[in-house]
Amino acid sequence: MLAHETSQLKQTPLHALHLARGAKMVPFAGYDMPVQYTAGVLKEHLHTRGSAGLFDVSHMGQLVLRAKSGKVGDAALALEKLMPQDIVGIAPGRQRYAQFTNSDGGLLDDLMVANFGDHLFLVVNAACKAEDEAHLRANLSDSCEIIPLADRALIALQGPKAEQALAKLCADAGSMKFMDAGPRRVADIDCFVSRSGYTGEDGFEISVPAGKAEALVTALLDNPDVLPIGLGARDSLRLEAGLCLYGHDIDTTTTPVEGALEWSVQKVRRGGGARAGGFPGADKVLAQFADGATRRRVGLRPDGRAPVREGAALFADATSAEPIGKVTSGGFGPSLNAPVAMGYLPTALSAVGTTVFAEVRGQRLPLKVAATPFVPNTYKR
Amino acid sequence: MTTLYTSDHEWLRIEGDVATIGITDYAQSQLGDVVFVELPKVGRSLKKAEAAAVVESVKAASDVYAPITGEVVEVNEALAAEPALVNSDAGGKAWFFKLRIADKGELGGLMDEAAYAAHTA
Hints:
The structure holds two protein chains of two kinds. Chain A is of the alpha+beta class. Chain A is built from eight helices and 19 strands. In chain A, helix 2 (41-50) packs across helix 7. By secondary structure, chain B is an alpha+beta fold. The longest helix of chain B has 8 residues, at 113-120. The two termini of chain B are 25 Å apart.
């Protein structure tokens, strides 16, 4: 086993804490990140669903978008030029899932946008953050200031005991609802807290100044209900929750309609809406809303026990030569105690219950199209 | 009875002309929780270094290679029902398959316990 090259990798403010807790570190999006701790992926996954898990997601990008006019509505209108979401309609103290589109209607990144009252707060994927910042500067600099918050950590606290654990350190935790977001005091530290996450569980995401991150995480981990969770379980949790991983399940070649993300495009931006279109690739995306797309992202449940992983070709039957699609994420779902996957299929074969076949090590394994999330989510709406 | 090891972290227990093959405790600790094992068919002829079985954790699939040439004479069906045996008893109950050894000369290239311990140190 070769030691991986760490010299070029960036570290999060919690790097020393990961090492002290016995994490196995791997390179991820240019950072040296914990893939698992001593408990292992399976136990970490189940602990998050049963109690509470703490994730370091400080590699993700945090940005402030502030209109030069001082009005948050102007920043929202500006951002709507780059995405198909209703940003103007995000109420103060609320957050929404969004995507940057390209001129083909493909997705440059997916992100969270929060209205913090006088400005917008964006959380973007680690691997895309430099490009996202450049994209914002290139398109919105005339009307907005774009301020990357490089000196902050980001942690996620997820699971049925997350509220109880955070409430010990943050008086407001219990009163927040799913997708509430804004500045909060946590353990006497000025943080940004949202009730959201990437596991399908109730939980919170907390942006904290880098210098205070270790103190906050240590305080949360002093609670025996809370265990640190690595990227391995983060991936199996989000897969069971049916959530997309950017660069795998969605990318520059997939539109919001193909990606089965229609729910994230509000009516006001669709055909006939008051602010319909006006984002890159709108012609194609709105045409797909009207007429459908030829392919679609679906959930897949293998019939057998063998995991069907990313890249596996999908076929209409056990013998046909031509693939009809491919698996974009796949693995084992510890809470389901069964393999789960996602992938793209022709829309005609995308109905729940349809049987297709994946090629794995030269064999054709049957899978059924399944509704997502595979594991019901437990958001506090 | 002799136990030998490969640099790919497999063990072989030699009894007469049959080798019982599994993965080492070190290998299972590196893989993490095993959720699926695919075994070769009984009667299959395996060449040394050929992919013979697959062991999958939550995160990844890993091949298990035939450490020597031979014919599969028995496989451990218990692993299909209980893959986690690989984590709890890698060196014992979680054997993968048995090979009828084609060429005992191939055993000379394998490590004994002391050499394997040094290999993983």
